[in-house]
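Last lecture ended with a question: if I hand you only a sequence, what can you say about the shape of the protein? Today we answer it with a concrete record. The protein is Platelet endothelial cell adhesion molecule isoform X6. Below, first the input exactly as provided, then the predicted structure, then a couple of comments.
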Amino acid sequence: MGLLLLLTSMLLSSYFHSGRVVTAQRLFKIRDITLSIEPAPDVTRDTNVTLRCQAFVSSSGQEALSREYRIYKDGNTIYSKNTSTSEDLLYPLSEARVSNSGKYKCKISIEQKDMTSGAKKLTVAGLSKPLLHINKDVVSEGEEVTATCTAPGETGSFFFYFYEDTKEIQEKQVNSNQAEARLHFSSTGYHKIHCGYTVLVTPESFKSKESLSVTVSVKELPIVAVLEIFPESKIYEGDKLDIFCSVKNNPRSTESINLYLSQGSQLLSSGYSTVNHSMVALAKDPEEFECRLEMGNVRKFDTKAVSVTELFSVPTLTMYPAEVFQREYMTLNCRSETSASERLDRDELTYTLDPTESPLISKVNGVFSVKALLYDFNYTCVAKAKEIVKRSETLTVRPKVAVSTPKISVVGRVVIGQSFKILCQSDIGSLPINYTLLWGYDQLNITTVKEPFQQALFTVTVRKSDEISKYMCEARNGQKEAPLSKRLNATVIVPLTNPILTVLPHLPEISEGDHLYLICGVNGTPPVTFKWYRVGNEHPLYTITTHMNNTNYRVSALSKEHSGMYYCEAINHANILVRSDLVTIEVRLALWKKVLIGGFCLLALSVLVVVVVLCFKSKRGKREAAAELSVRSATL
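The predicted structure:
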């Protein structure tokens, strides 16, 4: 129903519109397009292959639609066709070649609408065997040979390779199935040539088999290069060498001849028919001489080595002694170990030092007395005879700095009976330095300082305070006399001993209201830290640090509550804590309290006596009255 309404609307729109007639558009739909490879996607060479492009299109009318087909290989258009038929598009690949291998696609376009098929890969296997042809099979030296390599029936982009035996000698890239190479051979005799090729099919390549070998015979030309050197033997340094480079058996051809005379990599001379060169023979030049002839593509060589006997060997420079201090004299000895006595007198060989600016004293040829400088210095020995000059290797003299008088000190504190370290150190001096610790003048130990920040430390122990001053040290780094330090001066700490707690006033005299002094004393090196404790209290009653060996703690206005047991502790830099014995403090009553109590006691006694007397008198009166009454009664 929807399709019918759409068609009706489009038909109505084909009539008058703004005064003009508009033609109605046809409806169509490209449903699918496929590409197939016949007979198969993998084929061998010479197979007839067909690419079939099949499109499925739906349309609203009977009239055929105009279609454009395109065939792509590896993304590039290789064929296109416009048609109004609905039949499949066929694209033939007759006698397929390796170059036809690749990925193919098919595209259909209808009135600005298009669709592309999926990719299909075609693989063609097999390459033809290459054919090699040469224009000449017998040539003379330098003559050119033209070789042609053909890939029969192949198409595409090629790399052709030409080989002599197994060595590749040329490579050609062409877009045809044939390549030509011009070959030259550097040696005479028989040369076997063959070729091969590779077809490029992006992104792959396919290599062919190798062609049959073709033999080329190269005949030698009679022309030769001749090298002559005079004298021929018994050549010594300083002798004159005459060298000649020439041509023999010149064929008188139209080709120009060039001659090159060289020694090693150095070109000495060049010319056309004859080249000569003169030079002084040197033993340090062992390279061969070469006479090189070039005539077109022809190359000829003649080489000779010259043996030159040394007049004298390269000198060596030595120094004595091996180590020297600043401003000290040393001896530099310059000497050649060997010399040709048959050509050279002893007096003809002279030695000098370079540089000559430094003050030198030389009484014997090659022996120099030199004063060492304050800094490093380079010397070179120069030996000379008959215009031959030879230099020794550079000798670097590094004058040593004499070690300064060492300083002796202690590291940390010195405590009797405990080990401590002694430091010996010089402000200046070349390393290594040997430091020796002395007791009096007896050697105790040696330490060698080899690094800039290394220290000479010695571990010792003293038993008495006066022993510390017996230590000294000396430093030595090769000089004749070793400087000696001063005697060691340091404070010696004596550990604390004999702690005693003294009480003032004396124990029996301690009463309420008195001032109590607890005096703590020790033997040992101050400063001393004293602490007073009462048994039962964890924290000290009083703490003080003093430079005296005894001090006191005062307790004012004593009361009975101050009674108890007391002790003191002491410690100094030896870090050995000492404690006194316990002292028991008993605070007695004050005197006035004793008097008052005595008065009260006397008063109470007096009252008691009075009471007793009164009681006695009272009882006695009563007895007397009763007796009198009894008497009276009896009388009556």
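Comments.
1. The longest strand covers residues 189-201.
2. Residues 407-493 form a domain with the Immunoglobulin-like fold (CATH 2.60.40.10).
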